[in-house]
Amino acid sequence: MSGTGGTGRPHEIVERALALSRADSTVVLAEETSGANLRWAGNALTTNGVTRGRSLTVIATVDGARGTSAGVVTRSAVTDEDLEPLVRAAEEAARQSPAAEDAQPLHTGGAASADFTAEPAATSPAVFDAFAPALGETFARAAAQGRELFGFAEHTVVSTYLGTSGGLRLRHDQPAGHVELNAKSHARSRSAYVSVPTDDFTDVDPLALDAALAGRLAWAERRVDLPAGRYETLLPPTSVADLVVYQQWMADARQAHDGRTVFAAPGGGTRVGERLTSLPFTLWSDPAAPGLGSAPFVVAHSSAAGFGPQTSVFDNGLPLGRAEWIEEGVLRRLVTTRYTADVTGLPVAPLPGNLLLDAGGDGSIDDLVARTERGLLVTSLWYIREVDPKNLLLTGLTRDGVYLVENGEVTGVVNNFRFNESPVDVLARAAEAGASERTRSREWGEEFPRVAMPALRVPDFHMSSVSPGV
């Protein structure tokens, strides 16, 4: 449904859909999204705009002789006339579905969100009031110094309203924003890229971002071609996020219990309780993490396994708290639903919407560079794909800047590579970690934007082949 439709405010939609339902139990998720964006190319703003959208998900469950089945239907652009057919479609989908393996009683209890009946949150172009003038100054400076800038800035606010036939009435507002900035030499033979997260753009300085990229383009004036092989490699927080987010998505208890992933123990069971790293890495999620807050309850639009950990529509509204996945290098938890917790004998631990990694280190990627005799600085990973789930072997490409570090200084740009590495092995082999900082994964930032990671020094990072491209 559009922001101008006649269906009403989100909490009213939830109540009406619940009232229309004839299922044995019902979950309704209404989400309203507000967005604002700027785009630029060749040192000039090209477009700006605002977006509004709503989606409605109805989850109907039906009890039968063989168990409980669930039907899930999601629609956008729902009008008043469409609401009852949508509810009926979910009910029919439930009747036509087999009994759900993950069926559980819907979660009940807990106080309603105080702002459940309030208007949804929204953003507007005003979020760029300070950022846009600074961006204009950045364009002028880049043009004068012979650089072309490309990229975009985007800000969204998603208001999620969750209601159930069991009485839950929950609401969460999630702001998210980021800037992607790519700088190229005028001949476009050299390229550098950076992406930074923000909630409101008050903490983003485009002049500083451009200055950092200008430095990288200057490094690239000298080119050094290197063969494939294993190199001591410095990974900034964004590249660490590319690997660790995927690792956590694959940390599903049921798949490990069934012997299908790197977290399966030889002979059966899981590796929970096993030491994975020599550095004291702690990997955790916490909806209340400062600056990285996420929904404090489960929001599940489907019951799904495969890419990412198992989710269950029956867990909607389940409270979320801090979960330590790795503690001081030891695997403590794998992601579970209530159902898979029963199957595996592990604690109930759904994955919240953020992920933080810390090893007690200090300093930034620049400090790691200064302590490096010879190695590679890899500023960006791209096009990451899984090769072998049994050891979580991933392959991907470097892009927009691989640099040679010699005697504590960057001395030139290096050709791009294809890499083959397992995040589990990368953490196990890491020799040094910097301080954890908020960052954004280039590969997974759209799907999972709220992360904090340290820079890492990784011996013998496997660059499996040379890759063309800038």
Describe the structure.
This protein has nine helices and 24 strands. The chain is an alpha+beta fold and 470 residues long. It has two domains: 10-216, PmbA/TldD superfamily (PmbA/TldD fold), CATH 3.30.2290; 222-470, no CATH class. The strands form four sheets. Strands 7, 8, 15, 16, 17, 18, 19, 20, 21 and 24 form a ten-stranded mixed sheet that branches. α3 (131-144) packs parallel to α4 (206-219). Residues 1-6 have low confidence and may be disordered.
Put simply, the count of helices is 9
Q: What is the tally of beta strands? A: 24
The backbone outline, from C-alpha atoms, is globular
How would a textbook summarize the main sheet?
A: 10 strands, mixed
The structural class is alpha+beta
Mean pLDDT: 95
| Terminal residue distance | 42 Å
List the helices and strands and how they pair.
Elements: H1 10-20, E1 25-41, E2 44-64, E3 67-76, H2 80-96, H3 131-144, E4 147-164, E5 169-185, E6 191-198, H4 206-219, E7 223-224, E8 229-235, H5 237-249, H6 253-257, E9 282-285, E10 304-306, E11 308-311, E12 323-327, E13 330-331, H7 338-344, E14 355-358, H8 365-370, E15 374-378, E16 381-388, E17 393-398, E18 402-406, E19 409-414, E20 416-421, H9 423-429, E21 432-433, E22 437-439, E23 451-453, E24 456-467
Parallel strand pairs: 7-19, 8-15, 14-23
Antiparallel strand pairs: 1-2, 1-4, 2-3, 4-5, 5-6, 8-24, 9-12, 9-14, 10-11, 12-13, 15-18, 16-17, 17-20, 18-19, 20-24, 21-24, 22-23
Helix pairs in contact: 3-4
